[in-house]
Amino acid sequence: MEQKDSAAEGRFHRRIEAGEKIEPKDWMSDKYRRQLIRLISQHAHSEIVGMLPEGNWITRAPSLRRKLGLLAKVQDEAGHGLYLYCAAETLGVSREEMTEQLLSGAGSGAGELRTGKPQIHKTGGRGRYAASLPDVQIKAAEGG
Ligand SMILES: [Fe+2]
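Above: inputs. Below: predicted complex with fe (ii) ion.
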């Protein structure tokens, strides 16, 4: 079994060295897959958390034009996060698992969220979350 994994690992590295693209369903070691999931989900979390302070300013923007600009920025960041969560899901992790990791701070360095004011919580079905701030609520739902 170990020899078989070693041969697969060799083929995998030769594919990378040859510049081939590795698809989520292709063989990769568990360690490599876990690392990819960790990196992509961390990036997704940072997009979602990054939009929270931006959202906090929407109600304080001095004009409708400025509010629209901030809304677009927040929407962009939510979209980036959702694309990244979807990419991580193709590697075999669920949105729920990633959300739990974000909220618990497990392996993420995001433990400060547990006591921070912004909070992300499930609002119902699969892939539906809301981020709440003291005076603003931002809802994000997966596209399909
Ligand atoms: Fe972004």
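Residues 108-117, 133-144 have pLDDT under 50 and may be disordered.
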